[in-house]
Amino acid sequence: MGFRKPLDGGWGWVIVVVSFFTQFLCYGSPLAVGVVYVEWLDAFGEGKGKTAWVGSLANGIGLLASPVCSICVSSFGARPVAIFSGFMVAGGLMMSSFAPNIYFLYISYGIVVGLGCGLLYTATVTITCHYFDKRRGLALGLISTGSSVGLFIYAALQRELIDLYGLDGCLLIVGALSLNILACGSLMRPLESSNSPPPEKTCVDKVPDQYFVYREKGKSVEENISILEKGYVDEKCMNHVSDYKQEGVLAKSVLSSINVNEKDSYKKKVVEQTNFCKQLAKRKWQLYLNYWEETVVLFKNKVFSALFVAILLFDIGGFPPSLLMEDVARSASINEDDYHMPLISILGIMTAVGKLTLGILADFKWVNTLYLYVTTLLMTGVALFAIPFAKSYLTLAMLSGFLGFLTGNWSIFPYVTTKTVGIEKLTHAYGVLMFFAGLGNSLGPPIVGWFYDWTQEYDTAFYFSGFCVLLGGFLLLLAALPCWNACTSQSSKLPPNTYSYKVASSA
């Protein structure tokens, strides 16, 4: 069933507002986890690599479960998923305030909160893409700034709450604030599938699907009649079709005239039920096979394959600064008098500016969004290489702002994915890509923390991070070069909504 043509306005702007606040409330604390990360280091006395797993799981587990999140949104809709996920995020934050050790935080903060954020992210992005087409870049840029504004505000808010109420009181208050997600989710009205609802299936249309397996086996009239007697046709539908009722009465009369042994009748019922279950299992298995076949087809697209490598390497190298920048400043022995604003807050507000700016740029016809995304990757890699040379608050603040702006490329990533595979395959493709993004988010901070535990300095860790991001950017650039499109110019074989990146067309 296809969706109605996107509105590019109207209730779509309400969707943008509630999606903005949804991401603000759910991602505020996990993205600003660097503030509580320092407190957990002091509270539990564990190593940096081990403690970093809490924040990396919170930001990565939801993305790792993106295929499952996509299935949930496709099956139940954005509104129910958003409301349920609101309870998960709030409950996980409140449970974390009672954590006796770091392992409890892996479950309460890492998995429960992280999975709730993943469900909310998929729900907000999917429903926004359904409501917008021409202004999709702007809409995605606006809603994605919610998490960045949340990072900016929650970094200062959590630090203030810790000073006033301690770490446990801070997590309880932040969890209570997350309950506002329920109100936002209730406003996510789904886009109608068509102008007029499709006609309801008649009883005659429903019956063959329910005993199709028996007709295939060439059963006798007696056996087919006995199946009709089982009541596979529902009672309401029987009232609507009088002709079929007459057929059922005739069937019963024929059945009454035939003397069937009770034992044979019982055996027939067992066989029929077994065949029905087998057919149901075959259909479910076929759906499972179709899912993997569609995934294989996606990876035959060179740009999509390069995207999954790039997003994995980008999150391994690009995510650790948002979690560890506060500890980087502390390790550099920066004077607290020079510490005018948390570095995470600077990173967060510049991420919001970057998301909005890049989202607006993506709507211009002369801008190739894929090359714009590649440019942000390459510049991020260069900035990561510069972190070991920053020995003052001013240089770290400038690098945090620059990295934050470039991290705003998250706002155009759904746009790039949509143009690559089409809106019909967005949920599937985006779920697969977010799985690899979550893997990178989960591995990045612990790897950087382990480098520090091993070398007692962050220089080697950020050299490694910069190399990962640069490698992903170059691979994606190579996949998008015009020479590849010249070799595969059979665009007619592509699905109707698939976009093939060409330099000439975007110039």
Report strand %.
under 5%
The ordered string of helix (H) and strand (E) elements is: HHHHHHHHHHHHHHHHHHHHHHH
Computed over alpha carbons, the radius of gyration is: 28 Å
Number of strands: 0
Q: Which geometry do the CA atoms define?
A: globular
Q: What level of helicity do the residues show? A: over 70%
- Summed over residues and divided by their number, the pLDDT gives a mean of 76
Number of helices: 23
Class inferred from helices and paired strands: mainly alpha
Which stretches are poorly predicted, pLDDT < 50 over at least 5 residues? 196-222, 227-245, 486-507
Characterize the largest beta sheet: strand count, sense, and whether it forms a barrel: none
Q: Could you characterize what this model shows?
A:
By secondary structure, the protein is an all-alpha fold. It has helices spanning 11-31, 33-44, 48-64, 66-76, 78-96, 102-131, 136-177, 181-186, 203-216, 221-229, 235-240, 242-256, 262-299, 302-318, 320-331, 343-362, 369-386, 393-407, 413-421, 426-455, 459-479, 482-487, 503-506. Helix 5 (78-96) runs antiparallel to helix 6.
In short:
The protein contains 23 helices and no strands.
Task: Based on the model shown, name its key terms.
mainly alpha; 23 helices; 507 residues; globular
Write the layout of secondary structure elements.
Layout: H1 11-31, H2 33-44, H3 48-64, H4 66-76, H5 78-96, H6 102-131, H7 136-177, H8 181-186, H9 203-216, H10 221-229, H11 235-240, H12 242-256, H13 262-299, H14 302-318, H15 320-331, H16 343-362, H17 369-386, H18 393-407, H19 413-421, H20 426-455, H21 459-479, H22 482-487, H23 503-506
Helix pairs in contact: 1-6, 1-7, 2-3, 2-7, 2-15, 3-6, 3-20, 4-5, 4-6, 4-20, 5-6, 5-7, 6-7, 7-16, 9-13, 10-12, 14-17, 14-20, 14-21, 15-16, 15-18, 15-20, 16-18, 17-18, 17-21, 20-21
